[in-house]
Structure formats: structure tokens, C-alpha cells
Amino acid sequence: MFRLARLTAAALLMTAAPAVPQGSPQDPRPLYPAEQEWLARHNDARAEVGLGKLRWNHALMRDAQDWAEQLAARGVFRHHPDLIAMGQGENLWQGTRATYAPSQMIELFIDEKRMFRPGTFPDVSTTGRWSDVGHYTQIIWPETQEVGCATAVNARNEVLVCRYWPAGNRMGTVLDPGGRLARR
User: Fold this and answer.
1) pLDDT reading at 29 higher than 90
2) 138 to each of 17, 83, 110, 127, 144, how far by Cα in Å?
3) Which of 56, 66, 87, 158 has its CA 20 to 30 A from that of 35?
4) What string of DSSP letters covers the chain?
């Protein structure tokens, strides 16, 4: 079934440059169960390569929710056109409505780890295509500190949008085996 999930789920990636923090990451509101799962899976992947935890950011989540709702309502699947100006990174996922647990959605991003190799971004994939690992590298990007995710549905699909600050996947940045960063 998980193999089928991998085949039926679509995923894209957008690169963006870092900017100022997005809202207040110290928002006292509790996280809903799906938000807890998304954050936990991100932080599990980061811990596997020795990186610190991401903080949940409600402002990023609101941006993600707005975009997820627009994508679901329009029945399209593409990155937000203003990500670079907003200083946010973005991972997108889409699958059949009411089929996937929140952790499964993020796991599809993390599965790209099997194609990751250390190198200078964008040359970080064993396939030669950075887009094959771009979701994973955004998750383990050492400078990224905050994340917010949200979903929206239409009659057929569920769309997940995760937003990151600062954005990862910057050209010319070196990722070593632990996912750590060095500039050339």
C-alpha cells in the first residue's frame, strides 16, 4: 500500500532565499494532532542527520493554509509565485482525499533520502536531478529554523503545503553527509 501511495502522490519543490522571520514562532496556541505529526516527522528526519529541531510557526501555517485552499479550489498543483519575495521555502504534496495519515504525507518527502548524496546544491542527487531530493533537502536544510504546514481538500484530492523559513535549497551551498552547510 505504501508503494501505491508513493506512485499516486504527486510532489513538487520550489527554492527560495532566506529573509526575516515569519511572524512569531512562540505562539502559545497548542498544535492539533496533524500539526504535531508533521512537525515530529520533520524533526525525526533532522535528528537522523544530527540537526536541531524546527519550531512550528503559525504564520507560516496560515500562509500554507491559504495556498492549499487556493490549490484545492482551483484543482491545480503548483508553487506559490511569490515564494522568493516572501523568503519562504515550500514543499507540496497531493494525494487521494482521506487516504493518507499526516505522517505518511511527510514520509513521502523523507523517502527522497535514498537518492540524496553530499555535494554542492544542486548536485546532491544520485540521479543527477536535484528535484528528486529537493523536498528532503529542504527538510534537512541546516539553516531552516521554522515550519508550518496545512491541508485543504476538494472532491477528489487532498493538498498539503509546508512552508519553511529560512528557505533551503540555495544554489552553490554545500551539504555534507550530516546535512550540514558550508558556503563556497
Assistant:
1) no
2) 12, 14, 10, 17, 8
3) 87
4) -HHHHHHH-EEEEE-----S--S-TT--PPPPHHHHHHHHHHHHHHHHTTPPPPEE-HHHHHHHHHHHHHHHHHT-----TTHHHHT-EEEEEEEETT---HHHHHHHHHGGGGGB--EETT--BTTS-GGGTHHHHHHT-TT--EEEEEEEE-SSEEEEEEEEES----TTEEE-TTS-EEE-
Residue-wise pLDDT for 57-97, tens only, equals: 999 999 999 999 999 999 999 999 999 999 999 999 999 99
* Strand pairing class (146-153; 157-165): antiparallel
Taking all residues of the chain, what is their mean pLDDT, rounded to a whole number? Answer: 86
User: Which of the two residues, 133 and 27, has the higher pLDDT score?
Assistant: 133
Q: Give this prediction's pTM.
A: 0.84
Q: For position 177, what pLDDT does the model report? A: 61
What residue has cell string 497548542? 30
